[in-house]
Q: What sequence folds into this?
C-alpha cells in the first residue's frame, strides 16, 4: 500500500513542479496581494481617538469626558476582549463607567498618552490601570488571512481540477486497472498537495513577513500544526467535490459555491465581530474560519495549544470525514 | 489445449437505451491469443472492459483461474486500453516507473524499456511521442507487472502501416513468452497474424468462433477472382456469376474456378489483370456482418 501511494505521490509532485506556469502563478499571486494590501492599508491611521466603554447607556450621563470631540466611544460588553484590543492598540483607552471610575491605558501607545490627558482634565479622580503591547497593524491582521486564502484556493481548486482532469483524460480509468485503491490514490493526492502548500506557505510566511516586518507572537511549530491540519481539511473538502463529477462547469461552480462564502465570511478581510449571530454560526461551519481564528490567535496573541484545541479538533474531524466521504463516493471513470 | 485461464459466462451489459452485450460466453486457454472481432458498436470493447474488471456486467460473470475477478487478477493482468492519457510532464521512464510502483511483482524498468524498444525514448516527455511510440509506451506500461494475461483493445487503430507492423512484432515476441493475450481489432490481417482463436461479434452477440483456419473452412470455402472495375464490360454483369462490387474492382466468388474462368473467356472479358485468392477473414467478416454502413 505504501509503495503504491508513494509512486502516485512522486509522479504527482514531478508533474506539479514541472508545470512552471502554474508554479509561478501559485507563488506570485499571494505576494502581489499582500504587497498591494500593505500599500493600501499599511499607511498612517486616521487622526481619531478610540475609547472603549465598559458599562450601560444609563451610566454615560454623568461623564463630561464623553462629550469630547474627535473621540470615538465604543461600548464593549466583555472586559477581557476590550483589554485585548487595548493591548493591540486597536483602542487608545478603556474606561469603566461603573463606580469607582477606572481606566486602562496602553503605555506603549502615543495616542493613549494624549487621550489620557484629555480624560484626566475632565475627570481627575479616575484610577489608572496601565497595560502594554505593540500595535497590531491592519496588514499584520490581514497577513494570516492572505496566507489562509491562498491555502484555500490551492487546496480546493488545485486538487479538485487535477482529479477532474485525470478522470476526463482517462488516466484514472487506467489507474483503476491496477491494484491501486481509491483511498491510496486520494491519500497520495492529499499528501502531494499538502507538501506543496506547506512549502509555499512557509516561503510566503518568511518572504512576506520580512517585507512587512511581521513577527509571530506565538509558537511557530504550533502555527505549522494549524497549517497542516487546516490544509488537510480543505484538500479533503476539495476531493469530495472532485470525487464524482466529470463536468468542469459543474465542479467549477461547486468550488465557487464553497470558496466565495469562505472568502466573505471566514474573516480574511475583516473581523466578523458585531455581525449577526447567524452569520457567525455559518462562518464557523467553514474550515477556513477555524484556520484563521487559530492562526491569528497564535500569530497575534501568542495563544497556546490549549486555546486553539477546539479549532484543531474541528479541522481534524472534518478532514477525516471529507476524506472518507471522498473515498466512498469516488469514481474512476466517466459513465 | 491447456485449461482455460479466463471464462466468460452469459455476459450481458445493458444501458438505458441499448444492450451492448447480449449474452456472450467463451473461454480462453492459457497461453493462447484470443481475438474479438467485429464492426464498430458490436460490443467488443464493452466485453473486454468487463473482462478487465473495469465495467460491472448487468448479468453473467467472468472467472480468472476459476475464481471471480479479484486482487490476484489485478496483480496478474496487463491492460492496454483503446485510449489512455498519462500524467503530464513525465518522461517515458517515469511513466513506466509510476505504474511499476503499483504492483508487488514485475519486471525491472530497464528490462521493460528494452523489451518494448524504448531505449532511445526513455528520457523524452511522454506527450511528445508519435502515435506508434505512444502505443509502445502503453504496451510497456501494460507489461510492468509481467502479466500472465494481457488485454489489448484495438492496439493499432490509427497507426501507420510501419508502426502497425512494428507493434505486431512486439506482440509476437510477447506471445512467444507464453502470455495469454485477449485482443480486439477490426483489422482482419492483424487477427489472422496474431490470433490462435477468434470470435466474431455483431450486435452484442458472438456470431462465429474458432481458429481462423477452421472458420474459413466452415464458412468460406469459395475462392475470389478480382478484376479491375474499368476492365469489366457492363455486358458481363448479366453472366450467371456471383459478382460483388468492391471500391475499384469487381470480385467474383466461386466454388468452381475452372467453370468460372471458362465463362469469362467465352464472354471475352479481359483477364490480363486477373487476381485469384482464397477467401480471408475480412471476406468472412463482411459476409457475416454485412457491408452496409452502420448508424
A:
Amino acid at each position: 500500500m505504501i509503495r503504491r501511494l508513494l509512486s502516485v505521490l512522486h509522479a504527482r509532485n514531478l508533474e506539479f513542479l514541472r508545470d512552471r506556469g502554474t508554479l509561478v502563478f501559485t507563488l506570485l499571486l499571494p505576494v502581489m496581494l499582500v504587497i498591494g494590501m500593505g500599500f493600501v492599508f499599511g499607511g498612517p491611521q486616521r487622526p481619531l481617538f478610540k475609547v472603549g466603554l465598559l458599562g450601560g447607556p444609563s451610566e454615560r450621563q454623568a461623564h463630561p469626558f464623553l462629550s469630547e470631540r474627535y473621540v470615538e466611544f465604543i461600548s464593549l460588553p466583555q472586559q477581557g476582549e476590550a483589554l485585548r484590543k487595548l493591548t493591540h492598540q486597536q483602542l487608545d483607552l478603556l474606561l469603566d463607567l461603573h463606580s469607582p471610575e477606572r481606566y486602562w491605558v496602553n503605555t506603549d501607545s502615543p495616542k493613549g498618552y494624549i487621550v489620557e490627558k484629555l480624560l484626566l482634565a475632565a475627570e481627575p479622580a479616575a484610577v489608572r490601570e496601565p497595560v502594554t503591547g505593540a500595535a497590531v497593524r491592519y496588514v499584520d491582521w490581514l497577513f494570516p488571512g492572505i496566507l489562509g486564502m491562498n491555502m484555500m484556493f490551492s487546496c480546493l481548486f488545485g486538487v479538485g481540477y487535477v482529479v477532474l482532469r485525470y478522470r476526463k483524460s482517462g488516466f484514472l480509468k487506467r489507474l483503476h486497472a491496477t491494484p491501486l485503491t481509491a483511498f491510496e490514490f486520494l491519500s497520495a493526492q492529499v499528501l502531494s498537495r499538502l507538501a506543496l502548500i506547506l512549502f509555499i506557505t512557509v516561503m510566503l510566511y518568511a518572504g512576506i513577513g520580512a517585507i512587512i516586518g511581521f513577527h509571530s507572537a506565538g509558537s511557530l511549530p504550533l502555527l505549522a500544526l494549524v497549517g497542516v491540519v487546516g490544509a488537510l481539511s480543505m484538500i479533503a473538502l476539495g476531493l469530495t467535490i472532485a470525487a464524482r463529477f466529470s463536468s468542469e462547469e459543474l465542479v467549477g461552480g461547486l468550488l465557487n459555491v464553497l470558496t466565495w462564502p469562505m472568502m466573505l465570511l471566514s474573516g480574511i478581510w475583516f473581523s466578523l465581530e458585531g455581525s449577526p449571530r447567524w452569520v457567525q454560526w455559518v462562518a464557523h461551519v467553514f474550515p477556513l474560519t477555524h484556520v484563521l481564528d487559530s492562526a491569528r490567535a497564535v500569530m497575534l496573541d501568542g495563544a497556546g495549544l490549549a486555546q486553539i484545541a477546539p479549532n484543531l479538533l474541528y479541522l481534524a474531524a472534518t478532514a477525516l470525514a471529507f476524506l472518507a466521504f471522498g473515498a466512498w463516493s469516488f469514481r474512476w471513470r466517466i459513465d | 489445449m491447456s485449461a482455460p485461464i479466463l471464462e466468460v459466462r452469459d455476459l450481458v451489459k445493458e444501458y438505458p437505451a441499448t444492450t451492448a452485450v447480449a449474452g456472450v460466453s467463451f473461454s480462453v486457454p492459457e497461453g493462447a491469443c484470443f481475438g474479438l472481432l467485429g464492426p464498430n458498436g458490436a460490443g467488443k470493447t464493452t466485453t473486454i472492459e468487463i473482462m478487465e474488471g473495469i465495467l460491472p456486467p448487468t448479468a453473467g460473470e467472468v472467472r480468472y483461474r476459476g475464481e471471480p475477478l479479484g486482487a490476484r487478477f489485478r496483480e496478474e493482468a496487463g491492460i492496454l486500453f483503446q485510449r489512455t492519457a498519462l500524467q503530464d510532464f513525465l518522461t517515458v521512464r517515469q511513466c513506466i516507473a509510476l505504474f511499476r510502483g503499483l504492483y508487488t511483482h514485475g519486471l525491472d524498468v530497464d528490462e521493460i524499456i528494452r523489451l518494448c524498444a524504448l531505449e532511445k525514448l526513455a528520457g523524452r516527455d511522454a506527450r511528445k511521442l508519435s502515435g506508434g511510440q505512444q502505443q509502445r509506451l502503453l504496451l510497456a506500461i501494460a507489461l510492468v507487472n509481467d502479466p500472465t494475461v494481457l488485454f489489448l483493445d484495438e492496439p493499432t487503430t490509427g497507426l501507420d502501416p510501419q508502426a502497425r507492423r512494428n507493434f505486431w512484432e512486439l506482440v509476437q515476441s510477447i506471445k512467444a513468452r507464453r502470455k495469454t493475450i485477449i485482443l480486439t481489432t477490426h483489422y482482419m490481417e492483424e487477427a489472422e497474424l496474431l490470433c490462435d482463436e477468434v470470435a466474431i461479434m455483431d450486435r452484442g452477440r458472438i456470431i462465429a468462433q474458432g481458429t481462423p483456419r477452421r472458420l474459413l473452412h466452415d464458412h468460406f470455402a469459395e475462392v475470389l477472382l478480382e478484376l479491375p472495375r474499368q476492365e469489366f464490360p457492363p455486358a458481363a454483369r448479366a453472366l450467371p456469376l456471383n459478382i460483388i462490387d468492391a471500391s475499384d474492382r469487381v470480385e467474383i466468388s466461386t466454388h468452381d474456378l475452372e467453370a468460372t474462368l471458362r465463362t469469362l473467356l467465352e464472354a471475352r472479358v479481359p483477364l490480363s489483370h486477373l487476381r485469384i485468392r482464397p477467401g480471408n477473414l475480412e471476406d468472412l467478416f463482411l459476409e457475416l456482418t454485412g457491408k452496409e454502413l452502420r448508424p
